[in-house]
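Take a sample.
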Amino acid sequence: MPEDYISYIRSKVGHDKIILNFAGGILTDKQGRILLQLRADKKTWAIPGGTMELGESSLEACKREFLEETGIEVEATRLLNAYTNFNETYPNGDQVQTVVFLYELKAEAAVAISDFNNEETLKLQFFSREEIKNLESVSAKHRLMLEEYFADDFKLGH
């Protein structure tokens, strides 16, 4: 089985809607601000994370994707929620219903984000709750996750 599960499954189904499993994490700084990435594909601010590969746990996927998208090695402190009822269409036309496992994270070392960027991440920045409210380019799914995190009130059934 190829390592890149998305490419493998897309070779079978094209752009048709499929269910994909994702894992992501919330990392805060000392001021309680949340780290977001400016995604290269959608040009939106998002919680760092990505797709699980076959044979990988959601926690392994979260840690791997967070490192790939931020350059930061993390450990999970708790599972926050699972979000299962959001649909997305990617710029290339791929359609998905997402299943997202969201973790609270802590960095394993000092965090330096000022110069980080790669093919997935244009920019990293910490944002306060008020700053996030004013960001226009945050998806409804990520906005819900962030609101629940700041309220420390995670609803079931999303």
